[in-house]
Amino acid sequence: MAPFxxxxxxxxxxRVQRAQVVAAYNGLEVPLAEDFQMAVTNKSPEFLAKFxxxxxxxxxxxDGFCIAEGAAICTYLALSGPKRDQLFGTDPKTQxxxxxxxxxxxNELSTNLLTPAVMTLFKMAPFDEQKYNASAANLExxxxxxxxxxxxxxxxxxxxxxxxxxxxxAGTLFFGGKFLIDAExxxxxxxxVAWLKGLAALPEFKALGDLTLCETxxxx
Length: 220
Fold this sequence. Notes:
By secondary structure, the protein is mainly alpha-helical.
């Protein structure tokens, strides 16, 4: 099968991994672009002609269609295959709820995970304990929102099947589990942990790698 398109990014980007889970559901092949170099490729005139902000991830389809922003790429892939109705719903209310969770993943989860990650994992900024603690507190609040949504033994965030909502939220938490969502934080979110473990067992979620949950959050 010929690739549906390619994604420009550095390796192990959870936003790319989420897109590849979506692609797996729709039977689409979406590999990373070969020979991509961060801060080199995405600053080239050729790249900027397609993606003026120079950000990654960025998707280029086999037909030449280009789109940036992680959530937008996932939405496009969700709507581009036979599982589109499952992944994005068939009525405005379901689609609205799925979009709500997608925005939640970006605004409440990714934002509050990336600030600590930049300081502890990527070491691209000096450690600032006040910012670190504020992000952790905001993340904990967001996790409790997911916990409530999964009460009553729910297996999925919207409806009775995996949707883009589950992929967007879980894909972000797979990343956070490696360094910030520690045992202390997890004790108050048993529904979230069970939900993540259930999704991790699905073959389409293989792109996210193993579900790794740290015992103690990473600090310098």
